[in-house]
Amino acid sequence: MVCRPLLRTDALTFPRPRAGYLPLFSLMEIALQINVGVLNSPGSLARMSDMLRAADVNVEALFCTDGEKESVVHLIVDDVETAKMVLRDIGTISTTEVLAIQIKNKPGAIAHIARMCAGAKINIHHIYATSLGKEAMCYLAVDDVETAKKVLK
Fold first, then answer.
1. Which of 94, 85, 93 is nearest to 55 (CA)?
2. I need a labelling partner for 96 at 20 to 30 A (CA). Which of 63, 71, 81, 136 fits?
3. Domain assignment of residue 44, yes or no
4. 112 in Cβ contact with 105 (< 8 Å)
């Protein structure tokens, strides 16, 4: 049995999809993501989460990148300034503008975003998404959020 790739990546082109072809975005805005470097050890995330809870900061989205000694926790919160103040003692903190996009939860939604960015030569540094029912929320860190916002409209 010979396994063939389903898609030839060397032959990809990135045309703009027809109107209505894939999901429409119901919300698109620029959000400020907090990046916190924490020790990669048991309890680090619990401690950070407890600190945010105690300050009444709601975490709207989160993902972690793993490192040998340190991990980076990327957060979207409802109060960026309070979160930065509360978390300043547990690790290095930086912020990144990301594009927050609410999309239809259906096959091809993320492919649509990736294709549109690729067609405009916009690099996606990282992306994370979650869904609930018929809607999904997607966060993209890209080279230029303003250009990405225009391209994806």
1. 85
2. 136
3. yes
4. no
Q: Which two tokens stand for residue 130?
A: 């979650």
- Edge-first strand order for the sheet with 135-142 is 59-65, 70-77, 25-39, 93-104, 135-142, 124-132
Q: From CA 128, how far away is CA 136, in angstroms rounded?
A: 11
In this predicted model, what pLDDT tens digit does every residue of 10-64 receive, in sequence order? 444 444 545 444 446 678 899 999 999 999 999 999 999 999 999 999 999 999 9
Q: How many domains, the chain?
A: 2
**How many residues does this entry show for the chain?**
153
Structural domain range at position 128: 23-29+98-152
Cα atoms in the 13 Å half-sphere on the side-chain side of 51: 17
Q: Identity (one letter) of the amino acid at 11?
A: A
